[in-house]
Amino acid sequence: MSFKERYDSAGGRTIAVVVDRFSDGTPHFLIQSRAFVRGMEQPLNLSVPVSLVNEDTMHFCPWCGVLLRDWYRKWVDELTRVGLMIDRG
Predict the structure, then answer these.
(1) Taking Cα atoms as reference points, which of 12, 89, 63 lies closest to residue 29?
(2) Phi, psi (5° rounding) for residue 77?
(3) Closest CA to 29 of 1, 70, 64, 57
(4) Which residues of 56-85 are buried (b: 16+ CB within 10 A; e: fewer)?
(5) DSSP 8-57
(6) Number of alpha carbons in the 13 Å side-chain half-sphere of residue 2
(7) What pLDDT was estimated at residue 89?
(8) How far is CA 33 from CA 14, 18, 58, 59, in A?
(9) Residue 87 predicted with pLDDT over 80
């Protein structure tokens, strides 16, 4: 899988790349995993807590090693897709 393939799969039940911005406008690159397709989450009756979505910040591309904010600085706005990042309020 490549960066583009992981970016294209964002929102699906997979591991994906998500691009967004912090409130101050700084580019934010995430690696995200989802247990369900976005919008298709199901109520779970489990005795232990389960994360439906997990994400971590990425600074470098896991495939080629480039510094993401520098490499994609001209295209961050085109790559940003609202609603995929976990809403932390």
Answers:
(1) 63
(2) -65, -35
(3) 57
(4) eebeebeeeeeebeeebeeebeeeeeeebb
(5) HTTTSSSEEEEEEE-TTS-EEEEEEEESS-TT-------SS---SEEEEE
(6) 2
(7) 65
(8) 6, 10, 13, 17
(9) no
CA distances, 41 to each of 17, 45, 56, 76, 89 (Å)? 19, 13, 20, 28, 19
- Domain spans in the chain, listed from the N-terminal domain onward: 3-38+49-79
Q: Which of 87, 24, 28 is nearest to 53 (CA)?
A: 87
* Assigned token pair, 29: 């690159």
Place of tokens 């994360």: 51
Structure tokens at 78: 């085109």
pTM of model > 0.90: no
Q: What is the pLDDT of residues 4-58, one digit of tens each?
A: 999 999 999 999 999 998 889 899 999 999 988 887 777 778 788 878 889 999 9
